[in-house]
Write the structure tokens for this entry.
Amino acid sequence: MNDKKPEPALLPPTTRQRHFQDLSNLLDALLPPCCLVCSGQLEPAVGGLCSTCRENCIQLSGPSCCRCGRLLPEGAGKHHHCGSCRLKPPPQHGLRSGYDYRSVAPLLARVKRRAETALLVPLLDHLRSLKEYFPEIDAIVPVPSHRLELARRGHEPTLTLGVLLAGRLAKPLLPGILRKQRSTRPQHELGRGERAQNLHDAFVVPKSLPLSARLLCRWCALRTGLSPSPLLLRMAANLEKKRTIFNGFKLLLVDDVVTTGATIAACSRALLRGGATSIEVFTLAKTLSREECEVRKSDG
């Protein structure tokens, strides 16, 4: 019996998408692209950031805890768990981060405050071995904002990040199903102990498939070319059989930055209550603790 899962259905490019690509190629020929940060001219076949600005964005590499993503000293095994995760494992099953937050903080501030989401494209493009991190997932779920937070900001950076990541990993995106049911204080204003309490029961997975989620999935399918229809049918079948909506799903949770991990933990618990069998996490950046900074210095 063949248990191999079918690949996500690729949607054919529309006429509008083909015309947009032709126009983009023409503009690149007439107006050579420049760096999104310093406005310097880009080298051929390099997108978004010049070599100097790319070097300033420090990628996280080397050994790390496979459960929480904490940086570990050189020589730690690939599947090593840090001491904290051995004593009290977090709800997620794995976490990977792309960059040291301090090196990309100005760029992420522009993304969040000024909606310059084009900066996310080169940041993802320059990450090494992105596809190798999460080979065994069914779908991608972005960390949501509360509707009041979304109204204040005017855009959802994690949704844009999820759309871009879905295209690169060839995995469908399921937005709108994980929901933030109440507004909370900004996490950066709180201490480590207050952050978890601030997000207690803030995220939920509904017991039915909202129409808004279906519409968002259709919109994301047009953006990524990946159809989530088989997954939506699986969720509908789960609900018909009185199961939880994500029963049997392996999910990738996506956020822009991880600091203490309180938001990731709260979202992961909600997805696990929704029936997910495993939660992997990807964050574009990670705020390093003092101990992790010392590890990076000692490893050179």
User: Anything to note?
Assistant: Residues 15-30 form the longest helix (16 residues).
